[in-house]
Amino acid sequence: MESQDVTKVVLLACGSFNPITNMHLRMFELARDHLEDTGQYRVVKGIISPVGDAYKKKGLIEACHRLEMARLATKDSDWITVDTWESLQPEWVETAKVVRHHFEELLEAEQNTDDVDTVKYTKRRRIEENHLESSSCHRGRDAVRLMLLCGADVLESFGIPNLWKQEDIAEIVGRYGLVCITRSGNDPHKFIHQSDMLWKYRKNIIVVQEWVTNEISATHVRRALRRGRSVRYLLPDKVVHYIKEKGLYSAESEQKNADVVLAPFQRYTGASSS
Question: What is d(CA 45, CA 32) in angstroms, rounded to the nearest whole number?
Fold first, then answer.
């Protein structure tokens, strides 16, 4: 029987997934093992949310392909799913808004388990209050906790001027929490120490050490594909077959958005394409 002190967790990963790699999937497994080993959490779901085309990242292929590759990659998983909401938005959506959207979906799912409107309202209010009243990781059994899952490179990107709004970082880390997987060459503990914002919410950041370093970069995968090299065992087989079938990732596709300013920089600095 599950202890009442165990918090149910949903892990949300946002990113380009251009293409999705085995390392993206491995992050979910590492995070689940680490969280459940503490005895404080039970991971009930993982969500992959690919960014929309309006993000304007160089070499970013169409969301329809990135979504389908993510679906193929998670087809055999009994707990990781792919969500289309972010990808289908006509404009780029800040990660904080994506996290907020998924949290509201969780609240709605909690609501729908009750039959009486007054019970639904009371339960929703209790869950919201549980989530807002404390940044502690111990929230009681009723609240399903949503946490953003990322690599150490994303954590360090918080320090890049005009890439993130400070209030968004505060909301993501302070209200929801972050599970950060280490990568060789990145020291998340050092970065947390150097950032006043992250230091303030350090108890809401769970750093997971990856001892079996397997650095699979989507950038390196795309380079190999452009050069006609094998990417087998770097990506799920179904994804490799899809890329070949659709003829994805070429010298031409890598130049997509090359002259366009990344959406956050456009929004926060007023910059536009050259």
Answer: 9
